[in-house]
Design goal:
By secondary structure, the chain is an alpha/beta fold. The protein is about 35% helix and about 20% strand. The protein is built from nine helices and six strands. It is globular.
């Protein structure tokens, strides 16, 4: 199993797949095998994010809400009373491209889209709204957290920042930023949950090193092997029926 794919752009989801299972990465991000998905699974998140985008632009959300399903209206009613939603917005649905050089001297790009960048006092917050899915079990180590914080610090203060729609004057120190997950459930009882992750220079340097290491490994990877222990690390993986992990497990019995 080999690939001539050029990994010119790698997302947090790709880094998650690589860290979890190289074979999963191969099917998802090299062969780009995607099973058909029920769009209803994403409806709530899509609609709430659209309302948040309108709110960030200072637009009237009433018309959208008047035709919204009940779960969307319940989620919005809780979010709009939460202070995080009303912080000064520096960027909304911010798409970033951060350059990284591999050990082989190639230039690659880490990419992603941040739900919102906002100012809270002397800090800059990377905000991620969680509606259909929950906060990661270990948010500080999650690739979304790490990559988004890294990207903000790297891009802020560069000539391209304004072109990318990021309204921040001057560079940022890692200690000035934090990641904030805001989780809302579509019911009347569950309060909004906020999980905050601080950042610092040591974390920033460690993220740069591991990003460069992974991209350098990708540049020469040919096997995309299954986990050595024969145990599937993702019970929800879409590729279990074709990857060979189940046959490996049976052979070890």
């Amino acid at each position: 199993m080999s690939s001539s794919h050029e990994f010119s752009q790698v997302s947090s989801d790709a880094f998650k797949s690589w860290s979890r299972c190289k074979r999963q990465f191969y099917y998802k991000h090299v062969k780009r095998l995607q099973w058909p998905a029920d769009i209803q699974h994403f409806r709530l998140g899509r609609d709430v994010h659209k309302l948040l985008d309108y709110q960030a632009r200072g637009l009237d959300c009433d018309l959208l809400l008047s035709n919204a399903p009940r779960d969307v209206r319940l989620s919005w009613q809780k979010l709009i009373t939460h202070p995080t939603v009303h912080l000064p917005v520096l960027a909304n649905e911010w798409a970033f491209h951060v350059p990284l050089q591999t050990e082989q001297g190639k230039m690659e790009w880490a990419t992603g889209r941040i739900d919102r960048v906002a100012r809270s006092g002397n800090e800059i917050w990377v905000i991620d709204w969680k509606t259909g899915t929950g906060v990661p079990r270990n948010p500080e180590a999650d690739w979304q957290t790490r990559l988004y914080l890294y990207a903000l610090v790297e891009v802020a203060g560069t000539p391209s920042a304004a072109d990318l729609g990021l309204n921040i004057d001057g560079p940022l120190r890692p200690e000035q930023v934090r990641f904030v997950y805001v989780e809302v459930k579509a019911d009347e009882a569950t309060p909004v949950r906020e999980i905050s992750i601080e950042y610092n220079q040591a974390k920033h340097d460690a993220t740069r090193q591991v990003l460069q290491t992974i991209l350098s490994q990708l540049a020469v990877e040919e096997d995309f092997a299954l986990p050595d222990n024969g145990a599937c690390p993702d019970r929800y993986c879409s590729y279990r029926s074709i990857c060979g992990i189940e046959r490996m497990s049976l052979a070890s019995v």
